[in-house]
Amino acid sequence: MFIRVFVFVLGFIFSLIGLIYDICYLNLLTLGYNFSFYVKFIFSRVECLLFFIGVFIMLFSLFLKGDNNELHL
Q: What is the largest CA-CA distance in the chain?
């Protein structure tokens, strides 16, 4: 149970950091860049990909079993 909570919190922290960077880089749109350049830029930066990695980790922790930490799909 502790491992599930730790992995979920770790995923939440990763997704929060990634989302903060995604929102900060929205300022590129005010400089005259279009939305397609913004999306390409977001997917090329590792710190922005932390959002998707964090969501994947959180979903992974939800599918872990309790005691023996096996997946139950």
A: 53
Q: Looking at residue 25, what is its pLDDT? A: 92
Q: Does residue 71 lie in a domain region?
A: no
| Measured CA distances, 7 to 10, 27, 61 (Å) | 5, 32, 6
pTM reported for the whole predicted model: 0.78
Beta-carbon contacts of residue 62 (< 8 Å; ≥ 6 apart):
8
Cα separation, 68 vs 18, whole angstroms: 31
The conformation of residue 71, written as its DSSP 8-state character, comes to B
On whether residue 14 sits in a domain, the answer given is: yes
More confident residue, 65 or 12: 12
**57 pLDDT more than 80:** yes
